[in-house]
Write a structure and sequence with these properties.
Layout lengths: L2 H10 L4 E5 L3 H11 L9 E5 L3 E5 L9 H5 L15 H8 L7 E4 L9 H17 L2 E6 L13 E4 L5 H17 L9 H11 L4 H10 L1 E2 L2 E2 L1 H12 L5 E3 L12 H12 L6 E5 L2 H4 L11 H15 L3 E7 L5 H12 L3 E4 L1 H5 L9 H15 L6 E7 L7 H6 L3 E5 L4 H14 L15 H14 L3 H4 L6 H4 L1 H11 L4 E2 L19 E5 L2 E5 L21
Parallel strand pairs: 1-5, 1-6, 2-4, 4-5, 10-12, 10-13, 11-13, 11-14, 14-15
Antiparallel strand pairs: 2-3, 7-8, 9-12, 16-17
Helix pairs in contact: 1-2, 4-5, 6-7, 6-8, 7-9, 8-9, 12-15, 17-18
Length: 539
């Protein structure tokens, strides 16, 4: 059932107040006007915005007795309710209009939080109920104040499906041929391919993008996919990831095997969502965040994951070992979109005065994700660097697969060197000492050798391995994950070996009843700066 059909059904049973979340408000208003022509009494449909004031929509609006007094008088803006300040007068007079009007308030999300508008809507509930009229609030994401939540029927217009986009593409192709492109190539397969590229877009933007990508020879599919992704990336916090496939990943056989079987199994995912360092994005969600932004986002995200039946997995481990790489590779390997959800970008600019906006932006981002997937067919891969900071709610939602990405084996390191030497066109040569180097360190060394035109041994002088930069943090993470995560390379439980070779300066410290091995860096001499007095207090 379309949103217009739901609106007609609501009107027939006497619902006075409706809110519709839509990405295509102008198109929806036209569709409502045309749909109401065949309804009983052909009720007039009128829209309002702050610049144009009242406007009639569709043929039904011409049957209204107010056409001559208000809608057709272009010179009397005060009677057309133009301007933000006109909303209080508008709500006062709607109840006095004749007939059973349907009044659509455009971009209502900008107004419903204002006290005068909220009270005006409350006052209209019983008036419109008695006379059979309706007030429709339209906007991309409407959040009702508590005073209206029990009085307003909430509807959501879904984004076009693949079938609807295929029909739209066929219509554009017919128009292209009619406009003179007689050699325009078209088939059902072309329509399906266009629909797959445009999934997640609104109807208007999809039509415009498709028309721009049409030429004498047909549709430029590469350009169409690029432009479609640009349009979706306008949503705050959403971007697409591209990878080289599993051929560009050395080792990690257990993780690659797990995700391969998952992507080919029953209810195989139609899309992948990647969240990097989800623990940092949710800092303070369990307490400490006075603004309440983190807790709001945590509540909405965890509830949505449960309701949408998201297939959630968690990856942690040594930085630079391929956690994000394996997520990006799934798109190329299995021809599915991989979308990065940047929770930090979603909440950027929000604060104590803007509590609720972060959740609003998150809801918009999730709408874009839902448009390219289906319930039970969305895979989420989240990474985490601080296991203790991850809220229990999210741990429960990301429990289908938990992988630890440890330091690569010597064989995997040599394979990584061979991979990157080939990609940078470097000859086989002596390898530098690379104990506990991760793939990112190896890539950096090869890139430096290429850019500096030097040997790998010389380039290694400019590389600071992750194991040396974040020694304590990495070892703490390995100990916390031991026995709790699956080894991403060999499979089975990841367990820290007690007899593994350790540097001579390794020390043992006890924390919370458990022993940890740390590798402290050389101490730097303390510099004493005198500010008029020496440390003894003498002048």
């Amino acid at each position: 059932m379309s949103v217009c059909d739901e609106l007609c059904k609501a009107r027939n049973v006497g619902v006075p107040l409706v809110a519709i979340n839509t990405q295509e408000p102008t198109w929806l208003c036209s569709a409502i006007g045309e749909r109401m022509v065949g309804e009983q009494g052909s009720p007039p449909v009128v829209t309002w915005d702050c610049l144009r004031g009242l406007q009639g929509v569709g043929r039904g609006s011409m049957l209204w007795g107010l056409d001559a007094g208000v809608l057709q008088d272009e010179g009397r803006s005060e009677e057309r309710f133009v301007g933000d300040s006109a909303t209080d007068r508008l709500f006062s007079e709607i109840g006095q209009w004749p007939g059973e009007p349907i009044v659509i308030l455009l971009n209502a999300q900008r107004y419903v939080g204002m006290y005068a508008v909220m009270q005006g809507i409350c006052n209209l509930r019983d008036v419109l109920k008695r006379k059979g009229g309706m007030l429709v609030l339209v906007g991309p994401l409407i959040t009702l104040p508590v005073e209206l939540q029990q009085d307003v029927l909430m509807l959501t217009e879904p984004r076009p499906t693949r079938q609807e986009l295929a029909k739209l593409a066929t219509r554009v192709a017919i128009d292209a041929r009619a406009s003179g492109l007689s050699n325009f190539k078209w088939s059902e397969d072309e329509a399906t391919q266009c629909a797959d590229s445009m999934i997640g877009m609104g109807a208007f933007s999809a039509e415009q993008t498709l028309a721009l990508c049409a030429s004498e020879s047909g549709i430029d599919h590469a350009k169409l996919q690029q432009e479609a992704r640009k349009a979706i990336e306008q949503t705050r916090g959403i971007s697409f990831m591209n990878g080289a496939g599993f051929d560009g990943i050395v080792g990690l056989e257990a993780a690659k095997g797990f995700y391969s079987r998952l992507m080919r199994g029953p209810d195989k995912p139609l899309a992948v969502v990647y969240i990097d360092e989800i623990d940092d994005a949710m800092t303070g969600a369990s307490g400490g965040d006075l603004s309440g932004v983190s807790s709001d986002m945590l509540g909405y995200l965890s509830s949505w994951m449960e309701e949408y039946q998201v297939v959630g997995t968690l990856c942690t481990g040594v930085p630079g070992t391929g956690k994000s790489t394996i997520a990006a590779a799934l798109g190329t390997e299995f021809s599915v979109p991989v979308m990065k959800l940047d929770l930090g970008g979603v909440r950027a600019g929000t604060g104590e005065g803007l509590v609720g906006q972060a959740e609003m932006f998150l809801r918009l981002a999730i709408q874009s994700i839902e448009a390219v997937s289906e319930p039970r067919r969305l895979l989420m891969i989240a990474t985490c660097n601080k296991l203790r900071s991850l809220p229990a709610k999210l741990k429960a939602r990301l429990a289908l697969g938990s992988f630890f990405f440890d330091y690569p084996t010597p064989g995997a390191q040599e394979a990584a060197f061979a991979l990157w030497l080939g990609k940078y066109g470097l000859p086989q040569q002596e390898l530098p000492p690379h104990q506990q180097w991760v793939p990112r360190d190896i890539k950096q060394c090869c890139e430096l050798a290429f850019r500096l035109q030097c040997s790998l041994v010389e380039a290694a002088r400019y590389v600071v391995p992750a194991a040396q930069r974040d020694t304590r943090e990495i070892e703490t993470l390995r100990q916390e994950a031991s026995g709790r995560f699956i080894c991403a390379d060999k499979g089975g439980l990841f367990v820290v070996s007690s007899d593994a070779a350790e540097p001579a300066n390794a020390v043992t410290e006890e924390l919370a009843g458990r022993k940890f091995r740390f590798y402290p860096q050389p101490e730097q001499p303390m510099v004493e700066k005198k500010m008029g007095f020496d440390l003894g207090g003498d002048k």
